[in-house]
Each structure stands twice: as C-alpha cells, then as structure tokens.
Design brief:
Elements: E1 8-19, H1 23-33, E2 39-42, E3 55-57, H2 58-63, H3 70-75, E4 79-87, E5 94-102, H4 105-118, E6 122-124, E7 128-135, E8 138-145, E9 148-159, E10 171-173, E11 179-187, E12 195-199, E13 203-210, E14 214-221, H5 223-227, H6 234-242, E15 253-264, E16 268-270, E17 278-280, E18 286-287, H7 295-315, H8 320-350, H9 356-361, E19 384-387, E20 392-399, E21 404-411, E22 421-422, E23 425-426, H10 427-432, E24 437-439, H11 440-447, H12 453-465, E25 469-471
Parallel strand pairs: 1-2, 1-9, 2-6, 4-12, 9-17
Antiparallel strand pairs: 3-5, 4-5, 7-8, 8-9, 10-16, 11-14, 11-15, 12-13, 13-14, 16-18, 19-24, 19-25, 20-21, 22-23
The structure holds flavin-adenine dinucleotide (FAD).
Flavin-adenine dinucleotide binds next to helix 1, strand 3, strand 7 and helix 7.
C-alpha cells in the first residue's frame, strides 16, 4: 500500500507553520521573520506552477519594495499594461488608463517565496499539509513531502492555502456565485490594446495581453448557466461565449496554448479568521470577485497586517485579544467595502440590462452619502468651525510597527473606519482641544507646535469634508 512505504522521517519544531507559499503566505512569513520568529512554509506545488490572478496594478508594484523584490519582478520581463479598452453596459467602448503588470504567477510567486527564504524562513516544497492536531502549547502538523511524512510541532498555525482552504473552517459566500473559464491564446499579431473588459448578456470578459504575443482570455459567468449547457463540452461553450463579445474582434486568435481551465471565482470570507493559536490570511480568509483585480494586493497587505497580529499574540500575551479583535474588524470592514464596490460595478451594467446575472449581483450596490457641495469648497481662515456632536474618541485596536495596541481613535458616522493617525500625526489630541467654535486660522495657530501649517490645513479640510468639523 502507498501509505506503508511512507516513513516518519523527520520531526521539526518551529514557532509558526504556514500552509501555502502563494503571495499571502510568503508576505506573511517574510514580515513575521523580521520579528525574529522561526517559520516553516508548506507549499504543495513545485514552483513555478500556473496560477490565476495575473493582473497587478501600479499600487501593487509599490508594495514590492516592502519585500525587496521590485528589481527581480522588473527583470522578469512581464507584460507592462498602460491602458485597457472598456465596454461596460454602454454601446461605445472607452480607453481607460490602467497602468500595471500582467505577470506569470509561477515566476512572480517564486520571487516572493525566495524573498521569504532570504529572511530565514524554511520552506518544505513540495510539502502538502495533511492535518493538524492541537497539543499542549500548540499544534502537531502532519505534512506529506514526496514519499515521506514530516511531523512538525508549532506554537501557531496560519492557513494561507488560498481557495483550497486546507485548514477546516466555515466559509461564507457574500455575493452570488461566479465561475471562470479561461485559456491562454497565441495571437496572430500584436493587438492594439493591452487589455479589454466587456460586459455581455449573462457574463463578462477580460482579456490580458502577455509577453510574447499571447493573451489570457477569461469569461466570468453564473455556474448555473454553465451547468445548463447540456451536452456541449466546456471548450465549445467557452468558445461560443467568446463570440458574444464584440471587442474580441480586436484580438486575432491563432490557437489555445495548453487547455481551457475552469474554476470557482465566487466571493467568500471565513467565518472565523483568527483565534488564540491560528489565523487565516489571503484568499483563505477573504476572496474577492476577480473584477476587482485586487486579490494579490490584498494578499500582500493582509499578509503584513497578519504578521503584526501574530507577533502580538506570540510576544505580548496581554494584547492578544485586542490583536484578534483588530484582525476580525479589518476582515469585516473589507467584506463591507468589497461587497459594495463590486456590486456597484455590476450596477453600472444592471442600469441597462434586466438580465438576472446583472440584477442579482447589483443588489448590494449602495451609493456613499454625497459630500455636501459646501464641504467641497476650500475653507477660508475666517470660517468658524466646531466639532460635530457625532464625533467620539474611543479606545480602538490600532496597528503599530510591531504590535496591535489600544489607542484613542476618532469615530464618526461619516468615516468608513475609526481614525487614530493621519500620516504620523495622532488625530485625537488635536481635536480634543477644540472646545466651542474656532476660526480655521485659530485652529491652525493652536496646532502650530504639533504639525506644519500646510498639513494642518489639509487635515482641517478633510475633517470638514467628512463633517467631523461642522460650520457654526
Ligand atoms: C479566475 C480568477 C482570476 C483572478 N484574477 C486576478 C487578477 O487579475 N489580479 C489579482 O490581483 N487577483 C486575481 N485573482 C485573485 C488572486 O488569484 C488571489 O487573490 C491570490 O492568488 C491570493 O493569494 P493567496 O496567497 O491567498 O492564495 P494562492 O495564490 O492561491 O496561494 C495558495 C498556495 O497554497 C498552496 N496550497 C494549497 N493547499 C495546500 C496544502 N494542502 N498544502 C500546502 N500548500 C497548499 C497552493 O499550491 C498555493 O501555492 C483572481 C482569482 C480568480 C479565481
């Protein structure tokens, strides 16, 4: 029997085991290693391996400096996108500036994982997470590594296994289901556009140019429609769907390289993102509608945040519950943001289409309350302002350089989230001194010793736009 040939060849002790060496696992491990912890990443696939999620924005490129990999990513020869042709619910397409990169995720993820290794993170690759059992003071983790089984002891367990959700736990879908069909095509010539996004009857299409006159062409639809295709193969269904999109004519397709792939692309979040001895990060915690093209960005940023949370739990036990609350609240906040943001994109098409595909996905679109026209005007030094009666200063979990701690933060119904700092400046001490009404000039004079005048004016203007400071 296969299992009888396997031997308990190795026993390892470590602080933290991370399941998955994608962007979230690598970013988390690299950041946590900077705090001096011993970390082992388990990655079941040998890299480079193919992976969905190839479009990165300029904002994601900026994040790469945090892992010291910007040069390596730039030298990898990925396709650089400048603009995209978009036809979204309207008859006429528009060119939209969307600078970014279309990467080979096999190569990109390897660069990130190497960065974690350079920070002394151990990787077991191929290392498939099989199971974990709680034991005194942590976990016993069983890993399949080729023909052998490795037995790891660790204090903390992190699930960064993406949509595989290797560590058991409930996942909640927070938008109607979505399914992706995609393939890489060789093109007959170099197309005029770097990318195309188009809405169709019951689906939308995304084309991303790749280096070497190739393009990835994806179609996103409802899994129920795919299931109702009858006896047609997935391949012929995919190709017939492509013909529905008018902008596909800009891409002269030669042949499919490899196979047509299909995967679930629904938006989900875990119902239990963090506990005293485990945490989920990246897609294992929160997966987004691919329309956002933000999955890798979120995996990297939440990886950094998660490392500070785990460092707090391991090194500052008195702050452990605060750190868990911080992580839970950030997840809830992102679910709210992305649910509304994505639904608003579907809403733009739902305005013109009665198809249930668009109508159902637009349900959660809510417009943010508009900024009052007066609050958009630049303030004058003589304008008299006072603190809104709805502003509150409450102790709130806040992220510092190496830990989560309780700090006073400004809460107000107009703010998406509590605000403790603007840049390096603490907001609450500035506002607590504002009893009664003051002119803008007087507020700036009172803040003079704490912040430069131009920053002070920006903060006042921002507080005014958000109705934290109101007219007398
Ligand atoms: C169709 C589609 C298109 C997308 N397009 C975009 C896009 O254009 N831009 C964008 O930013 N995002 C996009 N995304 C989202 C993006 O792919 C993810 O958000 C991102 O990959 C999440 O990173 P991660 O590290 O959390 O998970 P992953 O990248 O999935 O990494 C998880 C890793 O865990 C490993 N693993 C899984 N199970 C185990 C196990 N049992 N043991 C050990 N290792 C394991 C896997 O091999 C994998 O390497 C798209 C998603 C989909 C579904």
């Amino acid at each position: 029997m296969e299992t009888s040939r396997k031997t308990m060849a190795q026993e390892l002790d470590t602080d933290v085991v991370v399941i998955g060496g994608g962007p979230a696992g690598a970013a988390f491990a690299r950041k946590l290693a900077e705090f001096g912890h011993q970390i082992v990443i388990l990655e079941k696939a040998a890299f480079p391996r193919p992976h969905v999620g190839i479009c990165l924005s300029d904002a994601t490129e900026m994040l790469l400096d945090q892992f010291n990999v910007r040069d390596a990513v730039h030298s990898a020869g990925f396709f650089r996108r400048k603009s995209v042709l978009v036809k979204w619910g309207t008859d006429q397409p528009l060119i939209s500036d969307q600078p970014g990169l279309h990467v080979d995720r096999g190569v990109f993820d390897r660069i990130l994982l190497e960065s974690a290794r350079r920070a002394s993170v151990t990787t077991i690759q191929p290392g498939r997470f099989l199971t974990a059992r709680r034991r005194l003071g942590g976990w016993q983790v069983i890993v399949e590594n080729g023909q052998r089984t490795i037995n790891l002891q660790s204090r903390f367990l992190v699930d960064a296994s993406g949509r595989a959700n290797a560590f058991p736990g409930q996942q909640v879908r927070y938008a109607p289901p979505l399914f992706a069909l995609h393939a890489t095509w060789r093109l007959c010539n170099r197309p005029d556009y770097d990318g195309i996004m188009e809405s169709g009857k019951n689906a939308w299409m995304w084309i991303a140019c790749l280096a070497g006159q190739e393009a990835q062409i994806s179609v996103y639809t409802d899994p129920a429609l795919l299931a109702s295709r009858g006896k047609r193969s997935v391949g012929s269904y995919y190709e017939s769907m492509l013909d529905e999109f008018s902008l596909i004519r800009h891409f002269h397709r030669d042949e499919i390289l490899g196979e047509i792939q299909c995967c679930d692309a629904s938006s989900r979040h875990s119902s239990h993102p963090v506990g005293a001895d485990f945490l989920r990060v990246g897609d294992a915690n929160l997966s987004l509608d691919p329309m956002a093209s933000q999955g890798v960005h979120l995996a990297l940023t939440s990886g950094i945040q998660a490392a500070i949370v785990v460092n707090t739990i391991l090194c500052f036990p008195e702050l452990a519950l605060i750190a868990q609350r911080f992580y839970q609240e950030r997840q809830e906040e992102r679910v709210r943001q992305f649910r509304h943001r994505t639904a608003s994109e579907y809403q733009r098409v739902a305005c013109f289409s009665s198809e249930s595909f668009w109508q159902e996905r637009a349900i959660n679109a809510v417009r943010p309350p508009p900024v009052h026209a007066d609050n958009r005007l630049p303030l004058t030094p003589s304008q008299t302002l006072e603190l809104s009666p709805h502003a509150q200063f409450l102790e709130t979990p806040v992220m510092k350089s190496d830990r989560i701690s309780l700090e006073p933060a400004l809460h107000h119904p107009r703010l998406d989230r509590p605000v403790a700092f603007v840049g390096e400046t603490e907001v609450c001490p500035l506002l607590r001194g504002l009893n009664g009404n003051h002119t803008v000039g007087a507020i700036l004079a009172a803040w003079e010793s704490k912040i430069p005048g131009n920053l002070g004016l920006q903060i006042i203007q921002w507080l005014w736009e958000h109705e934290v400071l109101v007219a007398r």
